[in-house]
Specification:
Helix content: over 70%
Radius of gyration: 19 Å
Number of domains: 1
Largest sheet: none
Number of strands: 0
Order of helices and strands: HHHHHHHHHHHH
Structural class: mainly alpha
Oligomer: single chain
Strand content: under 5%
Length: about 300
């Protein structure tokens, strides 16, 4: 199995986790944890896991010249990204958030062009258009849309979150070509923990953990271990072998993967619309991946 195939499998696994996360994180907030309490739980828990994992690996130092890029990646990829996502999701719906996040590949394309002169090819445009159409079609068909006035602020925050994530993918890519994913993640999450401790730690301390229902505690555990530790690690691994635009295009697979899981569990049924949506998404992934392979994976 080649490294590129492993990278795509890692992206599928990461986006399976992300696809499930919308509903799980939403049921935790705001009745049990505030957004900033959950942000602190995510970042502190993942930080501990990354540092513990790093003890099992050979020691690797980050060059002083790379520290500034590492700090900028931390701001956009952890502190700002997670704070905006959870605060936005708290006052909007999972369906709205999922639709807005489909703008991420377009934002990555623009950011990569501006920052690293990544070429915009016709195949990338076709891939983004096909994948975005399929993802939005599936979300519109499956969910209840609620772009009402009471969700405008939340939706706007999710747009800012998508922009922050796009910047992170492009900024962190050169570091992934140089360091082990765990090395980067342990420092990114340590710096991120320091940045969010101001609003996050007091909110975390106010949580009465002893009275939380078992399913809510399991949901928080999933957000920390699955959505943060595992998903970030899988995405960082994939960035060693594919371009940021390829990582971002897999966002389109989240509603498809969620539908497949629902089918397996007997919670949903196959329909022509869902088949068409899935074909469009995977066509989009193919075109973007094909274009990236033609212009070089790194």
């Amino acid at each position: 199995m080649t490294n590129h195939i492993r990278a795509h499998l890692a992206l599928i696994a990461a986006n399976l986790i992300y696809g499930v996360n919308y509903g799980i994180a939403k049921q935790v907030m705001p009745d049990y944890l505030s957004p900033f309490a959950l942000v602190f739980a995510r970042i502190s828990g993942a930080c501990l896991l990354f540092w513990a994992t790093s003890l099992l690996l050979p020691k690797e130092r980050v060059d002083r010249k790379d520290v500034l890029r590492l700090l900028i990646a931390t701001v956009f990829g952890v502190a700002v990204n997670q704070s905006l996502f959870l605060n936005g999701l708290n006052i909007t719906t999972p369906t709205d958030a999922a639709i807005i996040m489909t703008a991420t590949p377009i934002l990555v394309l623009v950011v990569a062009r501006l920052l690293i002169r990544e070429p915009i090819t016709i195949f990338k445009i076709i891939g983004i258009a096909a994948g975005g159409t399929g993802a939005i079609l599936l979300i519109l068909y499956s969910g209840k849309i609620s772009f009402g006035d009471n969700h405008v602020i939340g939706n706007s925050i999710i747009v800012a979150n998508a922009t922050s994530y796009a910047l992170y993918l492009v900024i962190v890519k050169p570091l992934m070509n140089k360091y082990h994913p765990v090395t980067l993640m342990r420092w990114i999450f340590l710096f991120g923990l320091l940045l969010v401790s101001g609003p996050g730690l007091p909110a975390f301390i106010r949580v009465n953990w002893g009275i939380l229902p078992g399913d809510i505690l399991l949901s928080v555990l999933f957000v920390v271990v699955g959505t943060t530790f595992l998903a970030y690690l899988l995405n960082m691994y994939s960035l060693k072998y594919v371009k940021p635009i390829t990582v971002s295009i897999y966002i389109y697979s989240q509603p498809v993967i969620a539908s497949i899981v629902a089918l397996i569990l007997g919670q949903d049924a196959v329909t022509p619309v869902k088949i068409l949506a899935a074909l469009l998404v995977f066509t989009g992934v193919y075109f973007v991946s094909y274009s990236s392979s033609k212009t070089g994976s790194r």
